[in-house]
Design a protein that fits this description.
Layout (H helix, E strand, L loop, with lengths): L2 H11 L2 H29 L1 E2 L2 E2 L2 H8 L1 H34 L4 H12 L8 H10 L4 H6 L10 H26 L2 H9 L4 H12 L1 H17 L2 H6 L7 H10 L4 H10 L1 H17 L20 H28 L2 E3 L3 E4 L2 H6 L4 H31 L5 H13 L2 H11 L11 H12 L1 H11 L4 H9 L4 H12 L1 H17 L15 H10 L3 H40 L1
Antiparallel strand pairs: 1-2, 3-4
Length: 563
């Protein structure tokens, strides 16, 4: 490194403004991440006499708690396996078969829908399909008194909800495996099955492990699906903690149950970091390489894969179509007269929830987006004491199950010095510090592709950190900013596992109203709320994508102008 570059790096790292930002960031993380977790542990492991392990010992020895804990691990493991397999089959089909473009577009739509929907959507559709008056069980198969509750339906609903995460994680990895590797194996006399097993599959093992851990953590944190579909015969810890607090008004007991989830959640978080850190993209050598080989799959196997994936896609689209129909009829399964009554309900009785949700989402969206790029920039581009610690702490609320985060916020902000319970601020803070890590990781990934000399040149010309960030770096990492905006908005419209504990008579959310409708068996309004949320999310995210294209288009045209 030249002397000028070293001086510029030192000057940027020692900038007083940057130091102030780091101090403010630590204060925010201390208040909204570390303090709630410390208070949760303190409340769970203390009584009038002080610190005690008696509540933990009692919780561990409780057969009902152990059963719920075992069920949670079983469900998360099965969802991780099934979702990873399904996601891999989808990614492999897209990258290794000659499917038509229209089919690819249909697949992308089907895999996107579960990610932008409220967590109850699939569960509601399962009730409409397989319940006592379900379309499949009652109308098609003629079954009476069919039950939809239990492990099988919960597993199926969660798998369909979360397998798109595995698909998105594995598709780029399969695309990155050059066809030259597979063609080389073919030239040595290997069969298609042997090439798949020894080349394609072996190179995606890190991705498969990461996808499994992603889905395991998502299922472990899922509160909504088991609450609706698991039933009394298959209790899980997140729902038991919720019922402990809301049904028995036992905040301490709920805190202790959520604390039991810390162990598997922490193990998964550590393993996931190690898997990602050890991943090696050995297929990217810097030399020209062929694209993904489409000849690695036999024609009959390709047709079988496309047929399987298409059947899954059609089933997902069927579930959402069923949801739309249920929102437009008087009583699905009993009276199919068309009506807009359910939409009148949500725009009259449910209007406060819609207004509150949109206000919170629109406030949290820019805060979360800006927070994501600032933290990502500090982590990727600066050297200061505690940089790695900040990177870990910013991921904690994202890695932990929402039930833990929600109960921790309820415990920590229910009394002075931080009395925030019942306000919009506590819900916004929960969304920002829980869902901004997507923007952080995207910012870090983009900055790894940007040469540091651009930033060093700005410092050497006398610009300070703020000017360099605002005029040089921010335009370059604009896609990460918009990614943060989109994720925070989507989760603000659809999440419930953490914020179910934070709503009040003053501020409520659409997802909470959906849950209330489900428990009251008002399935029509619940379906109408779900359709409304999906439409709003599609409109807003499409607008953000359009704005990003408009803002980045001049930069994309610049090389052609200069050439």
């Amino acid at each position: 490194m030249s002397a000028m570059a070293a001086w510029a790096r030192w000057r940027g790292a020692s900038d007083p403004l940057r130091l102030l930002v780091v101090i403010v960031l630590w204060l925010l993380l201390g208040v909204f991440v570390l303090y709630p977790l410390i208070e949760l542990i303190r409340r769970a492991l203390s009584d009038d006499a002080g610190f005690t392990l008696a509540p933990l010992i009692a919780a561990i020895h409780s057969k009902s708690n152990l059963r719920a804990f075992g069920n949670s691990l079983l469900l998360a493991t099965l969802v991780g396996i099934c979702g990873t397999v399904l996601g891999f089959l989808f990614a492999f089909t897209v990258e290794r078969t000659t499917a038509p473009k229209f089919w690819m577009r249909l697949l992308d739509i089907a895999t996107l829908l579960p990610l932008i929907s409220p967590p109850f959507t699939t569960s509601i559709a399962f009730v409409f399909s397989f319940g006592p008056r379900g379309f499949i069980t009652h109308d098609l198969l003629g079954m009476s008194n069919a039950t939809v509750y239990g492990l099988p339906s919960t597993l199926a609903a969660e798998t369909l909800t979360y397998f798109p995460l595995a698909y998105m994680a594995l598709r780029p990895m399969l695309a990155g495996i050059g066809g030259d590797l597979e063609e080389m194996a073919f030239s040595l006399g290997s069969s298609r099955w042997r090439v798949f097993r020894t080349v394609t599959l072996s190179l995606t093992v890190p991705g498969l492990a990461n996808a499994f851990l992603l889905l395991f953590a998502a299922s472990l944190a899922d509160f909504a699906t088991p609450l609706i579909l698991a039933g009394n015969d298959f209790p899980v810890l997140p729902t038991e903690a919720f019922l402990q607090i809301t049904g028995m008004f036992d905040l301490k007991g709920g805190a202790m149950l959520s604390l039991l989830l810390l162990v598997p959640a922490g193990i998964v978080y550590v393993l996931q970091r190690k898997v990602v850190a050890r991943r090696r993209y050995v297929t990217m050598t810097g030399k020209g390489r062929a694209g993904a080989s489409r000849s690695s799959v036999a024609p009959w196997a390709g047709r079988a894969l496309m047929a399987f994936c298409l059947s899954v896609v059609l089933f997902i689209l069927y579930l959402y179509a069923l949801l739309l129909i249920a929102s437009l009829v008087m009583s699905f399964g009993a009276n199919h007269t068309l009506t807009l009554a359910h939409y009148r309900v949500i725009f009259t009785e449910g209007l406060p929830a819609i207004e509150d949700t949109l206000i919170i989402a629109l406030i949290g969206m820019p805060i979360g987006g800006l927070y994501g790029v600032i933290v990502g920039y500090l982590v990727a581009r600066t050297n200061f004491i505690g940089r790695q610690a900040i990177e870990v702490v910013t991921m904690l609320n994202y890695a932990l199950p929402g039930t833990i985060v929600g109960i921790a916020y309820l415990v920590a902000f229910n009394e002075p010095p931080f009395l925030l319970t019942g306000t919009a601020a506590i819900i916004i803070a929960c969304y920002v510090f829980r869902y901004s890590p997507t923007g952080i990781r995207t910012t870090v990934a983009l900055l790894q592709q940007i040469d540091r000399s651009i930033e060093e040149a700005s410092f050497s010309l006398g610009a300070n950190s703020f000017t360099t960030f605002r005029r040089i770096m921010l335009p370059l990492i604009m896609p990460a900013f918009f990614a943060g905006l989109s994720v925070v908005f989507i989760r603000s419209m659809t999440a419930i596992s953490a914020t179910i504990f934070l709503v009040s008579i003053n501020w409520t959310l659409i997802t909470v109203r959906i849950l209330e409708n489900m428990t009251e068996l008002s399935l029509g309004p619940a379906a109408a709320f779900s359709v409304f949320v999906i439409l709003v999310v599609i409109v807003v995210t499409s607008g953000l994508n359009y704005a990003l294209r408009r803002m980045t288009a001049p930069g994309l045209r610049l090389p052609a102008v200069e050439g």
